[in-house]
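If you are new to this repository, start here. Below is one unmodified record pulled from the training split, so you can see the exact layout before writing a loader.
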Amino acid sequence: MSPNVISTPDLEKQFDESDRSRRHPEGPWWQMSRCNFRTTTGFLSLRSRKTTDEASNQSITTHQNLRDQALNTLFGLPPAHLTEWEGLHAFLYHMETCFRDLLDTRFAFIWKLMGQEQPSDPVLVWAWCFFVLDAFKASKDPDPSIDKIGRKILETARGPMARRGDRCEPNYVEKTHMLQAIFAILCWTSATLKPIIGDDAMHLSYKLTNPEFDEEANYAGLPA
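And here is the target side for that same chain:
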């Protein structure tokens, strides 16, 4: 075959490459595919980062709104006082540290009462705090019992729970933990009392109802 003669397969190859170059003037198609992949990946990464930033900003706003409401509910003060009195920040943080006890799943019923998912963030427990304090005020009793506050909470929640199709009446265990959660809020907001709730409360109740109970000898076998 003469050196100047181009075979048919070679002509087809040249035509194919020329056609691809016309369709993708920026470069061969395989390079464009890599470029598009990097562009798409970068866009998705940017969108994911934007979504994360928006969620973070929303969380910060929610936290600030709850703390502002706490300041007004507990002390009757506007948000501006948080910048003037550092002690208020310390108190709110102390309350939120205490709130962690109510994140335990045994207190799930109190979130059903409010139509909310049980949170993992203690700052969101302010919602339960406000719910209890509203029931306290609504009782119109200067010194209501915990049980009376509990009945007021159930009365308030019963309608919305029924509309959501939720079971309105707590069973014995749910009511026990609801009353503990009410007691805890009353103690914490007093800033002087530390409540006994959860396992410690069950342990104390067992001791009170069983005077002959020997704590040192039997604590390991105490029912959970």
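Two things worth knowing about this chain: The radius of gyration is 32 Å. Residues 20-25, 203-209, 213-224 have pLDDT under 50 and may be disordered.
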